[in-house]
């Protein structure tokens, strides 16, 4: 056999073996030649986390069971009387039962709502002291609950001015969060701007966050009724509102949605919640909110004027509006 022909055969054999090595599944050379394998093109389904505000009077496991019976997979609760008062200590067996129930029934994060009477920006020292103490106690308590976040109304400046109130609210947060164990996130709620409420603009919330030391644990809960009342048109310009939120605060800090319709028109600063689909937001806007790519993965908590049967109907309605 001529040398030239032998060289051709050797080359053909070499390249045949090389192709087999490269193409073979699991080959270490394959990604170097062709790049990493791409995942199949499909849209992963996002779990719809939906629930409502429930009474803590019968314990945490009872709330979780009620949430499931209503068709939900999360819930919100007050850690104490919403107008103030003492907080009951946790019962270990109840917390363990809650954790098991949440795991078996695929719950999303639950949400603790601070008392309405907490005003760290009050002109009265006694009121400020209660807010600081209550929040510190609440955070210590919720740190021991499974997948629990903490949400609160920033407060009211009572004609002292937003700037002074911002300093006082940040001081309260710095005091309350100065402890080893905390819930995953402490959330400032967007407010309607009723009276002298602080938090009616994204800029006011950002100012509080900027002055607070534990920024790694701070976030925002967006209330759909409040932001609409505050002048943010989430009905006709949801994308624009979210873009503005991202520019001022950052969407990475948005961890929860209070899903409420509104009794009043845009910018009314009234804070009057309405049942889903019966207010000025309407079903179309609500559907866009729960299906928006930037929001659909967040937990949604209903605070509409309902009893349990009404919440059950709303949860079923909202599930029907989800597009995935």
Can you walk me through this structure?
The chain is of the alpha/beta class and 324 residues long. Helices cover 41% and strands 12% of the residues. It contains eleven helices and ten strands. The protein has helices at 3-23, 30-34, 60-69, 92-104, 125-142, 162-176, 202-211, 224-229, 238-248, 282-291, 308-321; strands spanning 50-53, 74-77, 110-113, 148-152, 186-189, 218-223, 254-259, 261-262, 273-274, 300-302. The strands form two sheets. An eight-stranded parallel barrel has the order 1-2-3-4-5-6-7-10. It has a two-stranded antiparallel sheet with strand order 8-9. Helix 3 (60-69) packs parallel to helix 4, helix 5 packs across helix 6 (162-176) and helix 6 (162-176) packs across helix 7. The longest helix is centred in the first third of the chain and has 21 residues, at 3-23. It is globular and about 45 Å long. Residues 17-43 have low confidence and may be disordered.
Radius of gyration: 26 Å
Helix/strand class: alpha/beta
Q: What strand order characterises the main sheet? A: 1-2-3-4-5-6-7-10
Uncertain regions spanning at least 5 consecutive residues = 17-43
Order of helices and strands: HHEHEHEHEHEHEHHEEEHEH
Query: Tally the helices: what do you get?
Result: 11
What's the assembly state of these chains? single chain
Largest sheet: 8 strands, parallel, barrel
Question: What does the average pLDDT come to?
Answer: 90
Backbone shape: globular
Termini separation: 68 Å
Strand percentage lies at 5-15%
Count every beta strand, where a strand is a DSSP E run of 2 or more residues: 10
What is the share of helical residues? Answer: 40-55%
